[in-house]
From TrEMBL:
It comes from the Bacteria. SUPFAM superfamilies: Hypothetical protein MPN330. InterPro entries: DUF3196. It holds the Pfam family DUF3196. It comes from Entomoplasma freundtii. This is Uncharacterized protein.
Length: 252
């Protein structure tokens, strides 16, 4: 009964668009020394849904009659919107019998890296123990989805988001929202490489880039006055981010 009540509370927070409160509650529960497996599965799904919601995607099935075969066919579409919609909704199906088709999708060079990360997160959620190959970060990688550090990735994003929100000295919600989205785009593309930079390094880089995209000049001195970060690492992030944005709707 206790866990059912928590589920209802989390769902109510999300329904009321109280995303920060829902995220905090989910993270608190995931850190508990013991939680039932069914409740943990629920928490991880809600955490991923919030993650995608921030990305601006609709994670609900529009056609509940669609079969897994129909979704796999959508992966073959030339339209990125069809591919994205299919990847998001694959979480509603058992993917173990379809790993060969999914690996083929992951190896395609014309699929954006962030979309591949979304699929990897779903495979992780289903605790797939198989070794899979994929083309990502301009190289062939081998991963075991069940071993991927997805929770750490989402925690890192949440901390970066809070840093950006807590240091919005311009009081500009458009700049803040753009910086948060840039941070998410970067992490989705960078994963599963080791995060060899800090939360503030990423926040500084995306704040700087967001200002540029809005027609303003970035200023490292002002950013240094807001929080501590490694400017060299932030500049390296900017170089990578520019590469990732080539495939992003932000630059279209």
């Amino acid at each position: 009964m206790f866990y059912k009540d928590l589920e209802k509370k989390i769902l109510a927070l999300i329904a009321n668009n109280e995303i920060e409160e829902a995220s905090k509650l989910i993270e608190e529960e995931l850190k508990m020394p013991y939680i039932p497996q069914e409740f943990e599965t629920f928490l991880l799904k809600m955490q991923k849904d919030i993650f995608f919601k921030t990305r601006g995607e609709n994670t609900s099935l529009e056609e509940t009659s669609l079969t897994i075969e129909a979704l796999l066919n959508k992966l073959e579409s030339a339209k990125l919107t069809d591919q994205t919609w299919a990847v998001i909704n694959l979480e509603n199906y058992n993917l173990r019998p379809h790993l060969k088709e999914l690996e083929t999708f992951l190896l395609r060079k014309n699929i954006p890296d962030d979309l591949k990360t979304m699929l990897l997160m779903t495979l992780h959620q289903q605790q797939i123990p198989n070794l899979l190959q994929l083309w990502k970060n301009n190289q062939v990688l081998k991963v075991v989805p069940s071993e991927l550090k997805v929770t750490e990735l989402m925690d890192f994003f949440h901390e970066t988001k809070l840093t950006i929100m807590n240091h919005n000295w311009l009081k500009n919600t458009t700049w803040e929202a753009l910086s948060i989205k840039l941070a998410l785009i970067f992490l989705l593309n960078y994963f599963p490489k080791t995060l060899d930079f800090s939360v503030t390094d990423l926040a500084a880089a995306t704040d700087y880039k967001a200002l540029n995209l809005l027609g303003e000049s970035g200023n490292w001195e002002i950013l240094h006055s807001q929080f501590q970060f490694n400017e060299s690492k932030a500049k390296k992030i900017l170089i990578e981010l520019d590469k990732f944005l080539v495939h992003s709707e932000i630059t279209e």
